[in-house]
Amino acid sequence: MVLAQSVGGIFHSMEEYESSWETIKASSEVPLYGDPEAAPDPAPLHTGRMMSGFKQGLRDLLPLWELILSRDTVGQIMALDIQDPEDFRFPPALWVQTVYDFALAYHNQTLHREHMLKALTPLYLGRTASFVLETQHGDSSDVERTVETLCREFEASKSYLVEQWRWRDE
């Protein structure tokens, strides 16, 4: 529920402030003030429940996902089901495409917005499990590099979002 509320707020803001975000071409570094504190050593994260939630979503929500996501994206997500749990990877480019397609479906009101936002949760769990597995043996700089890779993927694919957003407005 928290994910649906958070993402719903972001998607609503995208509609409210589209004239601001549409024209931005790249990110810029945010100034850092003060000294960052070291994060405490995190407790180990277990991906089993996340993976179960993702697989349950594949079983139960596929018809909804087929209304929201492109055919290619649905095919790539379905292929994730056959991966070995320890080697599970939800690629950044696939996650970006998924988020952008959900944003477009929200904008286009493809489905009741609350149902659509809740349908994102299992996909988020899959991406989170992948992130944990990708970074579990690395240090904080490895985690930062993984996050930065995802951010760059969002930037690189933004033209798709803008083009589709405008097309739906016409």
Number of strands: 0
User: What is the SS-derived class?
Assistant: mainly alpha
* Total domain units: 1
As a percent range, the share of helical residues equals 55-70%
Cα-atom Rg, whole angstroms?
Answer: 17 Å
Number of helices: 9
Q: Characterize the largest beta sheet: strand count, sense, and whether it forms a barrel.
A: none
Regions with pLDDT < 50 over 5+ consecutive residues?
none
Question: What is the ordering of alpha helices and beta strands?
Answer: HHHHHHHHH
Q: What does this molecule look like?
A:
The chain is mainly alpha-helical. It has one domain (46-169). It is 69% helix and 0% strand. The protein contains nine helices and no strands. Helix 3 (48-68) packs antiparallel against helix 4, helix 3 (48-68) packs across helix 7 (121-135) and helix 5 packs parallel to helix 9.
